[in-house]
């Protein structure tokens, strides 16, 4: 893989940085001497993480409190970040959420929020920062997708649709900017042991059924941060689920029959 530069002293925006994978990625960026720019809704968590990273790793860490569901506020925040920092080297679009439920039982407001956060807020960030990257002829955009964007299952129709959109957007964007010095990567994950499931699966049924297969958030964070500023097309984790998604693309009807019981474990 072609190396763009070292992560040392690079300014990297991480959305959804107050918990889960985003929190762990911020730590990994700081560990390697990068400057994490933390974005989330919860000020107390961001401030605590900022203080931890500055004290432990002596990096320039800033945080910005914003609700990404408010696209105008998010746009203003991005403008403020560029104004404050001047040079942005990468963004990891990590913020997102899912709710596992049948469509006929789903709350419309939650459906709309999933679409706004998982798709529109991500595209808004790219649209705002892309001219900055193009002008400098370098940058890295990492979009957190999901294996759910490759294999749709019952009770995840909207979530799968949003992640399918993220993967499609990322693939097209990569082709648009590949000659402009900008790297674009999608990260497609299976279930990760984070608080994601507190909202997605409050009953705990799905968590219980996939518990032994859950990815460790620190392992995921190390993998993602490790490919920063390299020309990496995709990260797919875990490998067995990635292999399953490839089989699904080739033989969808067969895979749906064979995995019907597994698909319905939510």
TrEMBL record:
Gene Ontology CC entries for this record: membrane
InterPro entries, alphabetized: NAD(P)-bd_dom_sf, Sc_DH/Rdtase_CS, SDR_fam
Transmembrane segments: none
Pfam families registered for this protein in UniProt: adh_short
Tree of life domain: Bacteria
Keywords: Oxidoreductase
GO molecular function: oxidoreductase activity
Annotated family: Belongs to the short-chain dehydrogenases/reductases (SDR) family.
Name used for this protein in its record: SDR family oxidoreductase
Natural source organism: Aquibacillus koreensis
């Amino acid at each position: 893989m072609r190396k763009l530069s070292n992560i040392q002293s690079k300014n990297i925006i991480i959305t959804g940085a107050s918990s889960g994978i985003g929190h762990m990625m911020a730590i990994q960026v700081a560990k390697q001497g990068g400057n994490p720019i933390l974005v989330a809704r919860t000020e107390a968590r961001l401030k605590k993480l900022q203080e931890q990273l500055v004290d432990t790793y002596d990096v320039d860490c800033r945080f910005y409190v914003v609700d990404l569901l408010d696209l105008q506020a998010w746009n203003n925040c991005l403008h403020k970040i560029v104004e404050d920092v001047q040079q942005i080297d990468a963004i990891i679009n990590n913020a997102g959420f899912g709710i596992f439920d049948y469509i006929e039982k789903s709350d419309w407001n939650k459906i709309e929020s999933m679409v706004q956060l998982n798709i529109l807020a991500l595209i808004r960030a790219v649209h705002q920062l892309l001219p900055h990257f193009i002008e400098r002829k370098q940058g890295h955009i990492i979009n957190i997708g999901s294996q759910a964007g490759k294999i749709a299952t019952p009770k995840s129709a909207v979530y799968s649709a949003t992640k399918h959109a993220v993967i499609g957007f990322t693939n097209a964007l990569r082709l648009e900017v590949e000659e402009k010095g900008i790297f674009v990567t999608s990260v497609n994950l299976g279930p990760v042991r984070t608080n994601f499931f507190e909202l997605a699966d409050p009953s705990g049924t799905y968590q219980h059924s996939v518990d032994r297969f859950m990815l460790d958030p620190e392992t995921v964070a190390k993998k993602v941060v490790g490919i920063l500023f390299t020309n990496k097309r995709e990260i797919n984790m875990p490998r067995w689920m990635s292999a399953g998604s490839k089989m699904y693309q080739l033989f969808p009807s067969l895979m749906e029959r064979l995995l019907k019981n597994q698909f319905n474990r939510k």
